[in-house]
């Protein structure tokens, strides 16, 4: 799981709310972490591997295709970090117990605690930023303002912001040293803000960008041939449903974190969190804590279902030479060379036709990128393409 409480736990003088959740059935906690993360990592890799009986996945034509893969990679690496950290905690309880020793001479337990927590936070935070970049890029592609070159800017923004916020939050939390990092909320609050800022950004900004993208797709489909057929309406609905699935997975996997953190902050502000009136709040905090353990690592697999659907079990590990997909160029070449026109059209008509065909190709590529992984959508798009119809 990914929670700022993991970094707070590395402080020997951790607060009472952190002790409440981290000391609640630690063996069960680590076991569930390992199980959930292992299932998610294995199924995510299975989803991404090529399958028998299916055509090889096309090379990415736009940066959004690359972003989807990077989101899955971040989830896989984050899940591996959860498995490694939980395995050490479960297998070497004495080693982890040294974290609680104030002014201890052995620095390796604290180093492992901080390092593993930072690894998990950094990768999941980068996944949040990549998901935001996906929403931005989808809108820009439909507006024909993005391309492969923009992926460099996304890399700079994603990794730069993820590293900067992670380092800043950790530095403020552990300042001036690990032994004094929980002497006041002024240390912890900036750390929690830097952790949850990208998560809240995705929750707020992505639905707005997705909604605007869907509206732009509808305009493109209407303007491609001047009509809005049933196939095009269905294609627009499938793109909208894909965006809805992405946000649904994100809300399911991370809403429990926000609820849990709110409850724990409320408990921190109480003089004694063990008071009887706070029993229900403590129980709710522990329940959401276990839910986080299950849902946070499962994001990787659930995202691949939202991106590509279920790709099947039959894995094809044989190496095969894949041709570079130049469908648009080859189709247009066949259309021009196979059926040469004996009529010499005026140059202005020919140029107008060429521009219309180019615009239609750009529209088809933008829409096919948004519906990548949906075979039926790609087939309908091809049939409705002016090139396919010999226009």
TrEMBL record:
Bilayer topology: Multi-pass membrane protein
TM region positions: 28-46, 67-84, 118-140, 152-177, 189-210, 243-266, 286-310
Principal subcellular localisation of the protein: membrane
GO cellular component terms listed in the entry, alphabetical order: apical plasma membrane; lysosomal membrane; melanosome membrane
InterPro entries: GPR143 (IPR001414)
Region (Disordered): 370-391
Location(s), subcellular: Apical cell membrane; Lysosome membrane; Melanosome membrane
Gene Ontology molecular functions: dopamine binding; L-DOPA binding; L-DOPA receptor activity; L-tyrosine binding
Pfam families: Ocular_alb
Keywords: Cell membrane, G-protein coupled receptor, Glycoprotein, Lysosome, Membrane, Receptor, Transducer, Transmembrane, Transmembrane helix
Entry's Gene Ontology BP terms: melanosome organization; regulation of calcium-mediated signaling
Taxonomic superkingdom: Eukaryota
Described purpose of this protein according to its UniProt entry: Receptor for tyrosine, L-DOPA and dopamine. After binding to L-DOPA, stimulates Ca(2+) influx into the cytoplasm, increases secretion of the neurotrophic factor SERPINF1 and relocalizes beta arrestin at the plasma membrane; this ligand-dependent signaling occurs through a G(q)-mediated pathway in melanocytic cells. Its activity is mediated by G proteins which activate the phosphoinositide signaling pathway. Also plays a role as an intracellular G protein-coupled receptor involved in melanosome biogenesis, organization and transport.
Family, similarity comment: Belongs to the G-protein coupled receptor OA family.
Subunit-level organization: Interacts with heterotrimeric G(i) proteins. Interacts with ARRB1 and ARRB2. Interacts with MLANA.
PANTHER family: G-PROTEIN COUPLED RECEPTOR 143
Protein name: G-protein coupled receptor 143
Organism: Pomatostomus ruficeps (Chestnut-crowned babbler)
Gene it is expressed from: Gpr143
């Amino acid at each position: 799981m990914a929670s700022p409480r993991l970094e707070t736990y590395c402080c020997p003088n951790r607060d009472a709310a952190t002790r409440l959740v981290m000391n609640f059935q630690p063996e069960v906690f680590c076991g569930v972490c390992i199980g959930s993360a292992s299932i998610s990592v294995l199924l995510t890799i299975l989803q991404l591997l090529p399958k028998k009986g299916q055509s090889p996945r096309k090379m990415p034509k736009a940066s959004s295709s690359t972003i989807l893969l990077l989101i899955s990679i971040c989830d896989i690496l984050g899940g591996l970090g959860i498995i490694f950290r939980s395995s050490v905690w479960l297998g070497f309880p004495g080693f982890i117990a040294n974290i609680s020793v104030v002014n201890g001479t052995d620095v390796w337990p604290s180093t492992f605690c901080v390092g593993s927590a930072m690894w998990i936070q950094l990768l999941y935070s980068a996944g949040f930023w990549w998901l935001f970049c996906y929403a931005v890029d989808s809108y820009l592609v439909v507006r024909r303002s993005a391309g492969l070159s923009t992926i460099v800017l996304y890399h700079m923004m994603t990794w730069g912001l993820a590293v900067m916020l992670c380092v800043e939050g950790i530095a403020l939390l552990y300042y001036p040293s690990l032994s004094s990092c929980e002497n006041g909320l002024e240390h912890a609050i900036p750390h929690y803000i830097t952790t949850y800022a990208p998560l809240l950004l995705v929750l707020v900004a992505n639905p707005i960008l997705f909604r605007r993208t869907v509206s732009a797709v509808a305009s493109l489909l209407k303007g491609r041939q001047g009509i809005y057929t049933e196939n095009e309406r269905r294609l627009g609905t499938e793109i909208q449903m894909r965006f809805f699935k992405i946000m649904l997975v994100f809300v399911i996997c991370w809403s429990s974190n926000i609820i849990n953190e709110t409850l724990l902050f409320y408990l921190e502000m109480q003089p004694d969190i063990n008071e009887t009136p706070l029993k229900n709040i403590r129980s709710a905090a522990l329940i959401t804590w276990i839910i986080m353990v299950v849902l946070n690592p499962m994001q990787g697999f659930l995202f691949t279902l939202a991106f590509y659907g279920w790709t099947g079990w039959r894995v094809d590990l044989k190496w095969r030479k894949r041709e570079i997909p130049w469908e648009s160029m080859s189709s247009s070449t066949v259309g021009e060379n196979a059926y040469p026109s004996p009529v010499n059209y005026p140059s202005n008509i020919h140029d107008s036709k060429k521009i219309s065909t180019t615009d239609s190709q750009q529209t088809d590529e933008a829409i096919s990128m948004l519906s990548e992984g949906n075979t039926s959508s790609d087939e309908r798009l091809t049939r409705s393409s002016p090139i396919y119809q010999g226009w």
